[in-house]
Every structure is written in structure tokens, then in C-alpha cells.
Amino acid sequence: MSNFSDVMSYLGLSRDEAAAALNVSRDEIVRWCSTSEAPPIHIWQALVRMLDEIRISAEEAAKSADLDHLDASDLNRITLT
Fold first, then answer.
1. Greater confidence, 27 or 56?
2. How far is Cα of residue 18 from the mean position of the Cα atoms in its chain?
3. How many other CB atoms are there within 10 angstroms of residue 2's CB atom?
4. How far apart are CA 38 and CA 45, in angstroms?
5. What pLDDT shows up at residue 68?
6. How does DSSP assign 13-79, residue by residue?
7. H or E segment at 7?
8. What phi and psi, each to the nearest 5 degrees, are found at residue 69?
9. Vertex 5, ends 62 and 53: CA angle to 5°?
10. Could you tell me the pTM of the whole model?
């Protein structure tokens, strides 16, 4: 496995999804995942932006749900619809 493959796994991207999101061919994704060849710097920068977007979205979701004021027993009273 490569560092690129590890980051893709962390992001939960399939090879097809990564190719579409990064605007590259699936073959390039496969090559970067299965060899020691690293992708160009602009691909790494795009992955960092994706990670930042996920982090920011998670922070905003936590703020809007006011999760900072919950304790573990509160989770037992949540009703899922």
C-alpha cells in the first residue's frame, strides 16, 4: 500500500470516486495506490482540501447539534425516526 492509498481509505473514496473527484483517470488512481509512484503535488493539495472540508463540516454539524452539551446518558434518550 502507498501513502496515497492510505489517504484514499481514510477519506472512504473508491477508486472511481477518487478519479472523478480528482479529475484523473482510474488508471492513474490504481497506479498511485499500488506502486511507489507518488501523484503530483496538485493531487495531494486536492486531498488536503477534501480533508479540511470534512473536518469543517464535522465541526459545523457538531455545533448545530450542540453536541458539546451532551453527556453519554443523553444518547440513551434519542429517538430515531
1. 27
2. 10
3. 16
4. 13
5. 63
6. --HHHHHHHHTS-HHHHHHHHHSSPPPPHHHHHHHHHHHHHHHHHHHHHHHHHTGGG--HHHHTTPP
7. helix 3-11
8. -105, 10
9. 25
10. 0.71
